[in-house]
Task: inverse folding
């Protein structure tokens, strides 16, 4: 087993993916103890995990967004070939009488952007949300097979 994939966050890391616009965060797995807005935003961004697979018919994205309603998520196409997923996980309301022992769930805004290849049909993108999983399907253009015409050889 190679050490490189585990070093960069697992087998589905986008570090070497030319289509991904995400930047590798070397501090992704470090606990964030600060309660500042910046650390909460960073934490929420890191926790928006997305899988991208390509099938013969489409590019399929699956994002784990537990506790987020579909109204709180936006899926957009930017500049013709960039798929952008944005949203916000709101902070739970605090009561002055509450005593927090641990806060591990992240809150704040998140953004994920993916540059799609030229064969993606960006005008036919579909998105669905079920059980905290956002599924985005981007159909691909059919690959045209070249017309081959046999030529009879005389002689």
Result:
């Amino acid at each position: 087993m190679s050490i490189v994939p585990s070093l960069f966050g697992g087998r589905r890391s986008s570090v070497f993916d030319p289509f991904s616009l995400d930047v590798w965060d070397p501090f992704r797995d470090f606990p964030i103890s600060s309660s500042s807005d910046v650390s909460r935003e960073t934490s929420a961004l890191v926790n928006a995990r997305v899988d991208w697979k390509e099938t013969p018919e489409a590019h399929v994205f699956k994002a784990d967004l537990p506790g987020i309603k579909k109204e709180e998520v936006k899926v957009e196409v930017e500049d013709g070939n960039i798929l952008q997923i944005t949203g916000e996980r709101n902070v739970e309301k605090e009561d002055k009488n509450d005593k927090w022992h641990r806060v591990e769930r992240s809150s704040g805004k998140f953004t994920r952007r993916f540059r799609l290849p030229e064969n993606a049909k960006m005008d036919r993108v579909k998105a669905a949300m079920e059980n905290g999983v956002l599924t985005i399907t981007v159909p691909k253009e059919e690959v045209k097979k070249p017309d081959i015409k046999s030529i009879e050889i005389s002689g």
Notes: Residues 37-47 form the longest helix (11 residues). The beta strands are 50-54, 58-64, 73-78, 82-89, 108-115, 126-130, 133-139.
